[in-house]
Amino acid sequence: MPKSKCSLGLEHAEMESRMNPLTIIYWTRFLLGVIAALVSAFLTTLVPEFSLFNGISIALLFYIVTYYLYKSRFLAKVEKPSKIFTTGVGAYFLTWLATWALFYTILYYPQLQSQP
After folding, report:
1. How many domains is the chain built from?
2. What distances in angstroms separate CA 26 from CA 21, 33, 56, 76, one per listed residue?
3. CA-based nearest residue to 40, from 112, 105, 104, 110
4. Dihedral sign for Cα atoms in the order 9, 15, 18, 20
5. Three-state SS string across 34-81, please?
6. Coil, strand or helix at 11
7. 80: domain range?
8. Burial annotation 48-87 (CB, 10 A radius, 16+ → b, else e)
């Protein structure tokens, strides 16, 4: 049975070894910013006691957890260990903020219309 290939025709391990580790960290943090924003928006709209500051806490928690995951995986592959923490920080939080605002508006707007 042939090995599964990704859309570029490279195996996943080959593709990862060809990509710069900092590029992988940057783009996965971008995507995780979207996921953290979705979680934050759902919790903010569904749980009445949940506030914006709890949403920010979720975003920080996601970021810190990914830092330790990336540190264990990419520490030997980057020139400076501090790059693991700082790579993608702006993209992550700006993506989180914009996506959270979008999802919060989409989820909260119907609740506003149903109130008298």
Report:
1. 1
2. 9, 11, 20, 17
3. 104
4. positive
5. HHHHHHHHHHHHHCCCCCHHHHHHHHHHHHHHHHHHHHHHHHHHCCCC
6. coil
7. 29-106
8. eeeeeeebbebbeebbeebbeebeeebeeebeeeeebbeb
Does the residue 1 lie in any domain? no
Rounded to whole angstroms, how far apart are CA atoms 69 and 72? 5
Q: What percent of the chain has pLDDT over 90?
A: 53
Q: ∠78-26-83 over CA atoms, to 5°?
A: 35
Which is more confident, 110 or 108? Answer: 108
